Fold:
Amino acid sequence: MHLKSTFFILLICITHATIAQKKIAEEKFITIGGIEQWVTIKGDDVNNPIVLIIHGGPGSTMSHFKDDVYEDWKKEFTIVHWDQRGAGKTFGKNCPKDINNEFYLNNPLTINEMTNDGILVTQYLLKQLNKKKVILIGTSWGSILATEMAQKNPDLYHAYISHAQFINFSSNIENAYFGVKKMAELNDEKTILDKLNNLGAPPYKKAKTYGQLLRVIKQYERENATPAPSSWYKVAAAYENNEDSRDRYNGDDYSFLNLVGDDEMGIKSMVSNINFEHTAVVFRLPIIMIQGKYDILCSADLNKPYFEKIRAPRKEYFTVSNAAHGYNQAIIDKQYEIAKALKVQN
Structure:
């Protein structure tokens, strides 16, 4: 009887160990593009499909938040967040102690280098987790980078799920300016109209001016969209420290400067030549676009006509009625619905 009990206890221990071994929860630096870059890889079963999320910003990392946004996904997917070159812990690992104009001028971000980084991250994941492809999700700025990755090496991806898709940064920002100006005129909001008239229509010579316009755009977007749960953006304990906070803040500034450019500082915009209507109308993989109805920055006025031009093995366009540019529960639910419907085979 004692031997029988011992056997069952041993069997239970082995079973629990086997289940535990299937889980993955890694947060670490890996060498990508000649520098150390931060990734988090989390899921309940390493046999599940990989989802690589390309964050927006370009400095708006997601790795430092608690897992609330994609927590439920971990039962069926392995979720990967990557702090891109110039953002979050990747920025902190590679930047000097003194960040000044000389650093900005001598260390420009480029679309090509960051695209290569994304592909190398993908290849690392495939090798480490023994998979053939991953599901690619890109949001806002991340839609620019993810589009470039999908164009350059489509065989690495089951599909590209796009949210808040940029088409042409210059056109997007100009369309957004006139969009909010029209809203302010209709609502007779003199204070905002004065601010917009003082800014003038883009393009701008200073990054600061783009930031001022984006704050007005976000104000209008918030009026119509259901907000995300506040719990989503609580920083995880491991990242709640002065060093990580400083690196996120400085990386956000650095990345934004490289996004929009600043003539006075001599920094060129890395997206000034982006026009996907000319360079990305043919996709060799499925592309599914999610559009917030009240997204002003990446308006359906621009990305729906672009979508109609796309040629791909499969394409779909979904409008989410209670959303704008940012994430909320409805956007995450739609992403999940699409990812599940792919029924990918690893």
In short: The chain has one domain: 26-342. The longest strand covers residues 24-32.
